[in-house]
Amino acid sequence: MSAPHAIVGQIPALRRYARALTGDAWAADDLVQDTLERACHKWSLWTPGTDLRAWLFTLMHNLHASQVRRTAVQTMDIDALGTEPAALPATLDGPLDLQRCLLLLPEDQRAVLLLAALEDLSYAEIGRVLGVPVGTVMSRLSRARERLRRLMDGSPPERSEAGPIGRPALRRLK
Length: 174
Description:
By secondary structure, the chain is mainly α. It contains 8 helices and no strands. Helix 2 (11-22) crosses helix 3, helix 3 (25-41) crosses helix 4 and helix 6 (107-117) packs across helix 8. It is globular and about 50 Å long.
């Protein structure tokens, strides 16, 4: 199978993952386009016989992480450092819908959960895509499932998820 045909067969999975990752159809389409563009430019780096899908997901994950970091740096406002994050509009009295709850998960947990549940990748494959050990994958997946369950139930966040005075706790970045 030629390179273009092999990549074309992966587009539905890429679109599904991008849509769940970004929560926005336009942003997902842009992310898929950027991923395909990067795959074409870096095609010589893919080793035939290895998992093309995992390689493409790795490209997508890295692109998305770079975009999130870039956006965070561009929109950082020094005056807003001590304030709480903006809450979602209270349009629902009960629990939130799944897509909105997924978007409330931390990025690292959401990526692991989506790759496991949506794309049915093994822990080892997820570890390769995200560049983390299998134990980290299992830990993030467990925390993501528990947090998603609480969000879907409409439960308040646990004390460990918020710092003093309701501020978000500091998270360790890689």
